[in-house]
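Interim report, section 4.2 (structural modelling).
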Amino acid sequence: MDAYILAIESSCDETSMAIVKNGREVVSLSIATQIDIHKKYGGVVPEIASRMHTEAITYVLEDCLEKAHMKIEDMSAIAVTYAPGLTGSLMVGVEAAKILAFMYHKPLIAVNHLVGHIYANNLEEKLEYPLLALIVSGGHTELIVMEGDYQFKRLGETMDDAVGEAFDKVARVIGLSYPGGPSIEKLAKEGKHTYLLPNPVNDNTYHFSYSGLKSAVINLVHNEKQRGNEIRKADLAKSFQDVAVDELVRKVELAFKNTGIKRLVVAGGVSANQYLKEQMKKVSDQYGVKLLIPRILYCTDNAAMIGAAAYPKYLKQEFSDYSLNVSSSADIV
Amino acid sequence: MYSLFIDTHYTDLHLALFYNDKVCEEIKIENAKHSECFILSLEQLLKKKRITIDDLSGILVVVGPGSFTGCRIGVVIAKMISYCKNIPVKALSYLQALDLEYDKEVVVGIKDKNGVYGARFSLDHVLMGDYFYLSHEEYKNYSEYIYIDGKIDLNKVYLYMKKQDAIEPHLLKPIYIKKIEVENG
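Predicted structure of the assembly:
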């Protein structure tokens, strides 16, 4: 029998719901984004995010059901992102999911947001194992090996800032609007790699570090200003993006060499970056690795990926009870 | 038919059922973790009367003022039930509930750890002016007596709310009085 999962995602600044069939097919997807509100403040204000989720939640549900021409009664389960993310934001989604599960006697499935980003690929093409997964977002930079469904082994992670966080901060320093990733990418297209910036972690571990690179950009901007020099913003954006992405590529290449794994999944908001896609394609081709990056709609935060990630748990009947609580920092490994 | 009362505005979780205009069952948990106990308490409350959500004909929810997160939990659950099951929902401020105890024009208040939420109500319990928040210092110097942290009488609350209009569930939201950092900046 087909399984329809109603999934809810509210971990940051998008209120999203989706109905996903058998973990692979998106029947409907609704997203209410708050980007324009947070833009005013140069980043996500957690309390405002929680308020916006509260106001949007029933509208998003209505839209999602209408698009699918389905009722909650038709669902096989309710899934929700419970971690990681902004606590107050996550809570809105989790409470909504729990009351739905209770009212309609449906099983409740708790999904980790990062696992959701990996399973987003199942919406495009069925995941096969073993695979390498690179998670790159505003909160995470991790390289993971998966031997099967929900079998994660972490090779490395960032020791300080996440790569997406560095994009946001650098964007702010050079006066670009929030969110920083798309702003830097757009400007970098007009620039040349002329600024000399330090390579993050030039070693043979799988760890990442972005605070040094971020600080180097901040110092450079500060020093140039003091000297009265104009910053070539497009060149700086391009220089930063190159160094940030090349570091990811170098670590992925190291993993290709050491593990011999022939599949790479790139997940998370930063995987929407075109330069990153091109570089990952290049290195993957060089090693005969199959590269999987979902379309942008499924790269950025959305509930369809939560529905996809909930499916293996649905099959194994790994359900949560009504005491399910949020967690700001649940690791997947 | 039964009506459900929901109050999560501060640290206590308070749920009740009304039948024939009176409280017939209630659950109160002090210092509750709302997120962890709400649904389990609701389940327990309904079980006591051997009813389900579908037996409800109305919801009364306290929308604040108080803890932002606490208020949101009650509001999100109330609006989801109201929207999904098409059950009318009415929003109530806790200060309004407190005021029903006084048969004169008064300023009522609730303390939290940083100060006092307050509001003035007329003899016939109509809000006069806006809700406000006072720091400890401002409260000490306040020119008028504030009736702080009284008890609410749920039966009075129910009868008063009977005369009020239900609200569209999409539009239900908490009362936020205290400013947040970015609003001050």
